[in-house]
Amino acid sequence: MTTMRLGVCGYPIKHSLSPAIHQAALDTLGIDARYERWEIRPEQLQTWVAGLRAPDILGSNITVPHKEAVIPFLDELTPLARAIGAVNTIVHREGRLIGDNTDAAGFVRSLREEGGFEPQGRRLVLLGAGGAARAIAAALAWEGAASIAVHNRGLERAERLAAHLGSPVRAFPLTTEALAATLPSAECVVNTTSAGLREGETPLPAGVALPPGALVVDIIYNPPRTRFLREAEAAGARTLGGLGMLVYQAAASFTIWTGREAPVAVMYEAARRALAARSA
Ligand code: ATR
Is 153's C-beta closer than 6 angstroms to any atom of ligand 1? Predict the structure, then answer.
């Protein structure tokens, strides 16, 4: 029997937790497959994608900076990947490559199961309008959120996102004045920006308070408690970090590739262990 192959493609890729998460799941279920780390430069992407049609490849995860660039090289997109305009999962089926996006489902599952938050009919504020914000806003719109206010430093990018997804998404600048209009009635506030990856950074302008009754989410998982989350806690809000979204998007991809229910607890533990090893 051939050992099947999977992997994650990005540039750079050495910090990805996906190999640890997926290999733990494959091994636990006794699936004869190896999950690899594929560092692919933008100029290599097209040739590399063609190689995924090899018979021993089950599929691939796609991460920064290739989530959008990979689309023209695929045979098909799922409706959700098309709506988001980005692919994080490629499935190989008999020579055809199908692009999907599990970031959206991963976020919503974490919100529901860990945050106890049902998005339908709710008012949300998103900070940021990049790739991650697109997946999250599309997921929330799909789930029937009543309003999604997208605040971005560069207003144009937020406006493009709102125009692409339509109602209930609206665009705002990331300013104290604009946030004063949307934050007080928000039931959930999500940081999708990269501000917070470095200790001490926050996307919020100085002096802006988070609503104490809201669930406040940061999709950053390292550090596990960003300044944004610490300030939310200090304001009395409930908080949720990004590790759950990472694990649940992996679980959704795993099921698409293998047809098996993902061992989420094992994947969570592998992610925690890989993170701890990295910061040790
Ligand atoms: P990703 O795919 O991870 O979302 P991205 O597409 O590069 O990454 O988007 C990064 C997001 O973080 C953008 O919304 C960016 O705002 P701009 O579009 O105005 O650049 C936001 N961002 C990055 N650093 C920020 C900071 N210091 N303060 C506020 N927003 C920031």
Answer: yes
Q: Is the pLDDT of residue 239 over 90?
A: yes
Reply yes or no on whether the pLDDT at 275 is more than 80. yes
Tokens of 75: 């045979």
CA–centroid distance, 173 to ligand 1, in Å, is 13
Residues 60-79: tens digit of each pLDDT = 999 999 999 999 999 999 99
Residue with CA nearest ligand 1 atom 5: 130
In the predicted structure, residue 187 carries a pLDDT above the cut 80: yes
Q: How many CA atoms lie within 13 A of 86 on its CB side?
A: 24
Query: Is the pLDDT confidence value at 148 over 80?
Result: yes
Choose which residue among 194, 198, 249 to substitute to test ligand 1 binding: the one with the highest number of ligand atoms within 8 A of its C-beta. 194
Q: Give me the residues paired with residue 34 across strands.
A: 5
Alpha-carbon dihedral 69, 75, 78, 84, rounded to 10 degrees: 20
> Measuring from atom 26 of ligand 1, which residue has the nearest CA?
195
